[in-house]
C-alpha cells in the first residue's frame, strides 16, 4: 500500500517537471461591484490562483490599458496596483472622481484571455449649484408671484425640502416645513406676511446634506396704527403722542397739526424707535409745558413709493373734577290764609369726607329750620326733592 502511494507521487512529480500537468490560472474571488463616495479611495478586487508565468492586466470599459503586471501604464498617478497578498492584483484608485465610474476589467493573458469585470459606482453627495455662499435676497411687491429656486445635483438625485422662519428668528427656533418637495418654490400673490427666510435642504442619503437660505422681503405701502384716538393732559405738563408705522421700505413719517408738519424745537421733539414687529417703527411726539395752543387734532402721516396712510387723534385739556358739597334749600310757608304755599324743596348731598351715619328708626325725617321751613334729616344719605303744592282754603 505504501509502495503504491510512493509510486503515484513519483509519477506526478515527473509529469509536473515535464509540463504535462500545468494548472490554468483562475480568479478565486467572485464578481463584486464596488460603490464609493466621490473623493474617497476605491479598491477593485482581483485575485488569481496558479498565475504561473502569466501576466495580469487592467483595462477600462474603453479598452484603455491601465496597468500591466504591477506597473501603472496610464498617465494618472491616482491609479495603481494594490497587492496585500501574493495572489492579489487589486486596482486602486485614489480620490475617486465622477468620471471614474464605469466598468473595469481584470485580464489574464491566457489563450483565450480570461477576464473578470468589476463595476465602479460613484456616489455624489448633494450640491446646490446656485449657492454663491453670500446669501440670496428677493425683493417683491405685494401681489406679485415669487419663485425661490434651489438647483441641486448629486447621485442619487437629491430630494429638496423647504422650510421658512421669520426674519427676526436668527437661530431658526421657529422654522416650519412648507410647500412640496422640488427645486422651485412658487409663492403666488405674495403679501407682507410671506416675507421671511426660506431654506431649502437637499439630501440623498449620501452625507452631508446641504442647505441654502433665501431672504424674501415684500414691499408694501404704509399702515399707521394709533395708540389712542383721544388723550388728555393738564396745562404746563409734558405729554407724548405715539403711533406705529408698518411699511417697507420705510420712507417718510411725521406728525402734522392744523395741516402742517409739526416742527421740532427745544420744547417739542419727534422720536423714532424700532419695534420688534418686522418693518415697524414707533413715531413719538414729545411736548413739554403744553399750553392752550397745543390742544387740538394731530395726524400721524407715513408714505413711501407704494402709497400713503394717516391716522388722527385729539389732544384736549385735562380738568380735575370739582369737589361736591352739601346744598340745602328751604322755602318758608307763608302764613296768609289766602295764598298757595310751596311746602318744601330739600336737597342733600353729603361731602366725600363726611361720615354718613345710618338712619335710625323712630327719628324724625324732617326737622324745622330757624326760618320756619323744613329740611331733610342729615342722616338720610340720599337726595330727596319733595315739592308739595297745596291750596289753602279761603276762610
UniProtKB/TrEMBL annotation:
Keywords: Disulfide bond, Immunoglobulin domain, Repeat, Signal. Gene3D superfamilies: Immunoglobulins (2.60.40.10). Residues 25-119, 126-217, 222-315 form the Ig-like domain. It holds the Pfam family I-set. It comes from the Eukaryota. SMART domains: IG (SM00409), IGc2 (SM00408). Residues 1-22 form the signal peptide. One of its GO terms (cellular component) is neuron projection. This is Ig-like domain-containing protein. It comes from Magallana gigas (Pacific oyster). The lineage of its organism: Eukaryota, Metazoa, Spiralia, Lophotrochozoa, Mollusca.
Amino acid at each position: 500500500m505504501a509502495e503504491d502511494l510512493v509510486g503515484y507521487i513519483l509519477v506526478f512529480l515527473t509529469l509536473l517537471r515535464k509540463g504535462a500537468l500545468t494548472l490554468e490560472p483562475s480568479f478565486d474571488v467572485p464578481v463584486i461591484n464596488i460603490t464609493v463616495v466621490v473623493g474617497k479611495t476605491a479598491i477593485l478586487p482581483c485575485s488569481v490562483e496558479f498565475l504561473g508565468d502569466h501576466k495580469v492586466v487592467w483595462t477600462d470599459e474603453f479598452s484603455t490599458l491601465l496597468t500591466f503586471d504591477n506597473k501603472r501604464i496610464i498617465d494618472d498617478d491616482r491609479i495603481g496596483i494594490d497587492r496585500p497578498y501574493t495572489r492579489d492584483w487589486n486596482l486602486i484608485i485614489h480620490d475617486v472622481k465622477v468620471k471614474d465610474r464605469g466598468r473595469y476589467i481584470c485580464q489574464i493573458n491566457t489563450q483565450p484571455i480570461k477576464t473578470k469585470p468589476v463595476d465602479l459606482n460613484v456616489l455624489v453627495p448633494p450640491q446646490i449649484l446656485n449657492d454663491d455662499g453670500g446669501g440670496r435676497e428677493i425683493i417683491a411687491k405685494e401681489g406679485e408671484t415669487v419663485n425661490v429656486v434651489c438647483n441641486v445635483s448629486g447621485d442619487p438625485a437629491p430630494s429638496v425640502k423647504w422650510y421658512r422662519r421669520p426674519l427676526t428668528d436668527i437661530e431658526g427656533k421657529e422654522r416650519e416645513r412648507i410647500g412640496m418637495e422640488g427645486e422651485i418654490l412658487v409663492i403666488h400673490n405674495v403679501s407682507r406676511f410671506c416675507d421671511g427666510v426660506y431654506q431649502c435642504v437637499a439630501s440623498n442619503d449620501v452625507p452631508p446634506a446641504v442647505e441654502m437660505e433665501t431672504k424674501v422681503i415684500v414691499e408694501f405701502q404704509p399702515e399707521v396704527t394709533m395708540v389712542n384716538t383721544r388723550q388728555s393732559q393738564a396745562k404746563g405738563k409734558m405729554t407724548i403722542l405715539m403711533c406705529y408705522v408698518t411699511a417697507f421700505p420705510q420712507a417718510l413719517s411725521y406728525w402734522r397739526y392744523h395741516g402742517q408738519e409739526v416742527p421740532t424745537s427745544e420744547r417739542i421733539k419727534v422720536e423714532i424707535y424700532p419695534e420688534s414687529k418686522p418693518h415697524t417703527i414707533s413715531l413719538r411726539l414729545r411736548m413739554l409745558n403744553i399750553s392752550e395752543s397745543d390742544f387740538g387734532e394731530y395726524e400721524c402721516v407715513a408714505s413711501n413709493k407704494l402709497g400713503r396712510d394717516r391716522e388722527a387723534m385729539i389732544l384736549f385739556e385735562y380738568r380735575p373734577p370739582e369737589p361736591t358739597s352739601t346744598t340745602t334749600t328751604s322755602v318758608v310757608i307763608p302764613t296768609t290764609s289766602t295764598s298757595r304755599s310751596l311746602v318744601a324743596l330739600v336737597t342733600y348731598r353729603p361731602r366725600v369726607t363726611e361720615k354718613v351715619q345710618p338712619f335710625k328708626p323712630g327719628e324724625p325725617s324732617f326737622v324745622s329750620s330757624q326760618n320756619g321751613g323744613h329740611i331733610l334729616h342729615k342722616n338720610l344719605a340720599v337726595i330727596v326733592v319733595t315739592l308739595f303744592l297745596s291750596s289753602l282754603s279761603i276762610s
